[in-house]
Design brief:
This protein is an alpha/beta fold. Helix content is 34%, strand content 18%. It has a single domain, classed as Aldolase class I (TIM Barrel). It has a 5-stranded parallel beta sheet. Helix 4 links the parallel strand 3 and strand 4. It is globular and about 50 Å long.
Length: 157
């Protein structure tokens, strides 16, 4: 008899349009829209489409509003946006997102490079009361440039 059980289903979220493209040279807005439209036709059920970050932090996502406004929405497909702070969360809500990915960086170096909020500042109460799905994640837990200890990850997440 196995010592553990396995889930009956697995949820896969495609993150390429956001995570993949933010690590490349800036891609034209129309190409991002075509990518998201094509991914929407593959049968994937969740896509992390864009990130609402300050363009100085991640210039590749400066056109997040235009990309989101330009794609064909596939019924039943869940789209989300990554947000590093309350301003990004407000932009995502204003754009019409029903799901956001809240990110907290475990690495001080990564956090200060990508966020304008304090690591200790709480998310605003209006976000907790909004009628959207909100997921949290710790980023840069396995960083080569700035190693992060286990205690710091638990404190940050």
């Amino acid at each position: 008899m196995p010592s553990h059980t396995y889930p009956t289903s697995v949820s896969i979220r495609e993150v390429g349009p956001r995570d993949g493209l933010q690590n490349e040279e800036p891609v034209p807005t129309e190409a991002k829209i075509r990518l998201l439209d094509a991914l929407g036709e593959t049968g994937v059920r969740r896509i992390e489409a864009v990130s609402f970050v300050h363009p100085k932090a991640i210039p590749q996502m400066a056109d997040a509003d235009e990309v989101w406004a330009g794609i064909r929405r596939v019924p039943g497909l869940r789209y989300s946006a990554l947000v590093p702070n309350s301003r990004g969360a407000q932009r995502a809500l204003d754009a019409g997102f029903q799901e956001i990915e809240v990110v907290v960086s475990a690495s001080d170096t990564h956090f200060s490079a990508t966020s304008t909020r304090s690591r200790r500042s709480p998310w605003p109460p209006w976000l907790r009361r909004s009628a959207i799905r909100c997921y949290g994640r710790a980023s840069r837990v396995l960083s080569r440039r700035s190693p992060v200890g286990r205690n710091k990850v638990w404190c940050s997440a």
